[in-house]
Amino acid sequence: MLLTPLTTVAALLVLAGAAKLRAPQTAAAALSHGGLPVRGLAVRLIGGLEVGLGLAAIGVPSPALAVAIAGAYASFAVVTVRLLRAGEQARCGCFGARSSPVHPIHLALNLTGVAVATAAALTPVGTGLPAVVFAHPAGGAILAASVAAATVLAHQAYVAVPALWSAWTPTRPPAPSA
Questions:
Q1: Which listed site, 5, 61, 120, 163, has its alpha carbon 20 to 30 Å from 71?
Q2: Are 22 and 44 in contact, with CB atoms under 8 Å apart?
């Protein structure tokens, strides 16, 4: 039952890693703001690990891969806390150039990734998405579409929701006139 959530957090990891491979500068700047100075090559290596880990978990999920994904999201949460504590409006670096300023929402999303992957590590997920698609084409297509939709929504939660949330200001009712 955890195939869809695990595959979603794995696919999100693939997107984030690919973005870091393509444009490592934002992630390098975010890590530097958080007190972890790194160069573009190191960020590209991290991005490559994210892509590989995510693809492996999508293809052949296992408890070991789920633990590794939980570790990745936990490390993202640590960096997010460091950036939030720094108090600067640094970009999160999650998705390369499309990253938004770091926000507590990033921490909540990263901790959700930890929870999903930890649950998947403790509960057998079974077969991977490709095997489901090949064994049951119609149901597999629906599953693949649901994972794709969930991944797009999760991506938007990282890149769009923090900016929208920060832009919102509550309105006060007009003061009664005398």
A1: 163
A2: no
